[in-house]
Amino acid sequence: MSLPWHPIPGGLTAPTGFLAAGSTAGLKASGKPDLSLLLAPTGAVCAGSFTTNRVRAACVDLCAERLAASGGRARAVLTNSGQANACTGDLGLIDSLRATQATADLLGLAAEEVLICSTGVIGVPIPMQILLAGLDPLVEALSPEGGAAAATAILTTDLIDKQVALEADLGGRRVRLGGMAKGSGMIHPTMATMLGYLSCDAGVPAELWQGMVRRAVDRSFNAITVDGDTSTNDTFLAFAAGEPLSPEHFDALEAGLTAVSQHLARAIARDGEGATCLIETRVEGATDDAGARAIARTICGSSLVKCAVHGRDPNWGRIVAAAGRAGVEFDPEAVALWLGEHQLMAAGQPVSFDRQAASRFMAERAAGAYLSGDTVTIRLVVGDGPGQGRAWGCDLSDQYVRINADYTT
């Protein structure tokens, strides 16, 4: 985590002026929370990053269109969980428009200032009478302490909620960043049933903010994978509102924005369906950072690598084979590889290593503390170039198959 940022309690509503709420409207048969709302202060700018899947939910297009038309201005985002409202024909857009208009009316905003995200089963429309009936109590529950409830209400197959908040002193001024996300399966964002939200209590010009968010997303949400499947609904929305920040602190702000995004992205990868550990791949020596990230993500996304990690098998051949199909030029004779502290290759050749100790390293990580001691680290050097990058994934277990084989039945 980059200095001068340090963690603080709270999540999305830790920054000054942001309100949130989560409630149980009855959209899920399970009776779990299923409706959330974030309200940003007056004058907020919003930057978005969205799925590149050609099959997109209407809410994704609506968010993108509203942000483009307004020059990055938005005040609120409503999220329903349980129904993706994707592949539902004209009804998908009609219901998204109805939901945002009703929310705007209750908040005293223009409909164009309200965004909407949906998550759940593809092909299932939103039960609109239930959603509309749940808006009044949801708006009434808006609070500076509502971040935790909102983070719970956006979950689907997630095992845990995902929240983070950071604070820094920038030029004698306290600045806070907060975030929440959801995602567990269908995760391979090119900006997956992945949703992420970020809040910032410093004012930043909209165009500059969009650039910061785009770069942070490339280094976080676009650097994770669980199963190689992108979704119809992937959305990341970042709001900034407050006293304008001096340009001399923009780099520090972007470092904090990236740290929040990476924390949330890693939490999504670790919460992969059926996973027992996080995989972090670090690639060095590539021609550029983009190439290094591409290699790292290909390794994390390899089913064979993921299975080997789950089986605690230090099968280094799978790692270098995955690197070789990433579409990035490098010299195989320059490759060096480590699994944790165990070096497996040097100058493109295998080296002797303690196979049992390497296997124990992976087993110990599977029993480690969440997001700290549970990470299997892979380090790959592919040359002497300046490019470096990281990606995150998880192991692949039989539980992943069981969860997804029974997803709608």
Distance between the termini: 42 Å
- Largest pleated sheet: 6 strands, mixed
Oligomer: single chain
Count up the domains: 2
Poorly predicted residue ranges: none
* Residue-averaged pLDDT: 92
Classified by CATH, the class of the largest domain is Alpha Beta
Determine the structural class based on helices, strands and strand pairing.
alpha+beta
Task: Offer a quick outline of the entry.
This protein is α+β, with helices and mostly antiparallel strands and 409 residues long.
Report on this structure.
- The protein is α+β, with helices and mostly antiparallel strands and 409 residues long.
- It folds into two domains: 6-270, 4-Layer Sandwich (L-amino peptidase D-ALA esterase/amidase); 278-405, Ubiquitin-like (UB roll), CATH 3.10.20.
- Helices cover 33% and strands 24% of the residues.
- It has helices at residues 58-70, 90-107, 128-140, 147-153, 206-218, 250-270, 289-301, 303-310, 316-324, 355-366, 398-405; strands at residues 6-7, 19-23, 35-39, 45-50, 76-83, 114-121, 162-170, 173-182, 195-200, 235-240, 278-286, 336-339, 342-346, 349-350, 375-381, 387-394.
- The strands form three sheets. Strands 1-7-8-9-10-4 form a six-stranded mixed sheet, sandwiched between helices.
- Helix 2 packs parallel to helix 3 (128-140), helix 5 packs across helix 6 (250-270) and helix 7 (289-301) crosses helix 9.
- The longest helix is centred in the middle third of the chain and has 21 residues, at 250-270.
- The chain is globular.
- The two termini are 42 Å apart.
- The model has no long low-confidence stretch (mean pLDDT 92).
